[in-house]
Amino acid sequence: MLRKFRSAVMTRTSDVAPARRLVGALASLGSSLMALGVLTFGVSTPVSATPVQWDGNGHWYELVTTNAQGTSAGAIAAAAGHSYNGMNGYLVTITSQAEQVFLDGQVNPWAFVAWLGGSDEQAEGDWRWLTGPEKGQALDWTNWGWNEPNNHGEGHPEGEDYILGWWSGDKWNDIYDNYSNYSYIVEYSADNVAAVPLPAGLPLLGGGLSVLGLLARRRKARRA
Ligand SMILES: [Ca+2]
Ligand SMILES: [Ca+2]
């Protein structure tokens, strides 16, 4: 069955590849993966594998698969909603061959087509990471498939400004934002923590001091 699913992934030839065709394979694959203890929920809801840590950078990675069609923007938001061991999640950034190889072997060995956190939405051909500690940085290392990125965008005049990994083998393809895809990978890094909020009492304290100051000024004004 794994071979059948991988073959469905590998035989796609165009940028408007039939994602729906993959859903059947995905659904049947889900039960097998659960039987293997890989996935933790049924495929009718988002499923995710247990996060796995890579020795190369200490980050953790989690494959999330859902039967709801998701855009790149949706995947970025969804990934940001994940947390693990106190770390906030972000849509994965793959910045080296070693990271790609780890993900291929340990996180997404089934080669689910999955959103990555890069884009050239600001300037065509200027690929940048939108997520994680690398946010705003150029993609120094890439893993584009043959003839990609091609900004093909058939039927999408806005072109192709986002990235799907494992499009062909483990290779990347640029694609339009609202392409319907079913999987993404969440990365967790201690470098990606939320801004430390003000202690809850401070705004109240500040407000209270302002009120006291106002009352004092009023008292003075009455005395004058
Ligand atoms: Ca990364
Ligand atoms: Ca493309």
Could you explain how this protein is built, in words?
This protein is 31% helix and 22% strand. It folds into two domains: 2-193, Roll (Mannose-Binding Protein A, Chain A), CATH 3.10.100; 198-224. Helix 1 runs antiparallel to helix 2 (19-35). Strands 1, 2, 3, 4, 5, 6, 7, 8, 9 and 10 form a ten-stranded mixed β-sheet that branches. With 224 residues, it is an alpha+beta fold. The structure holds calcium ion (2 copies). One calcium ion (CA) binds next to strand 9.
User: What is the mean predicted local confidence, pLDDT?
Assistant: 77
Radius of gyration, in Å, reads 23 Å
How many domains would you count in the coordinates? 2
The CATH class designation of the largest domain is Alpha Beta
CATH topology of the largest domain: Mannose-Binding Protein A, Chain A
* Poorly predicted runs of 5 or more residues: 1-44, 201-216, 220-224
Bound molecules: calcium ion
Shape: globular
Percent range for β-strand residues: 15-25%
Number of helical elements: 5
- Major beta sheet, specifics? 10 strands, mixed
| Helical residues, percent | 25-40%
C-alpha end-to-end distance: 89 Å
Helices and strands, in N-to-C order?
A: HHEEEHEEHEEEEEH
User: Which CATH architecture of the largest domain would you pick?
Assistant: Roll
The helix/strand class is alpha+beta
The named CATH superfamily of the largest domain: Mannose-Binding Protein A, subunit A
**Count of DSSP strands:** 10
Overview in brief:
The chain has 224 residues and is an alpha+beta fold. 31% of the residues lie in helices and 22% in strands. Strands 1, 2, 3, 4, 5, 6, 7, 8, 9 and 10 form a 10-stranded mixed sheet that branches.
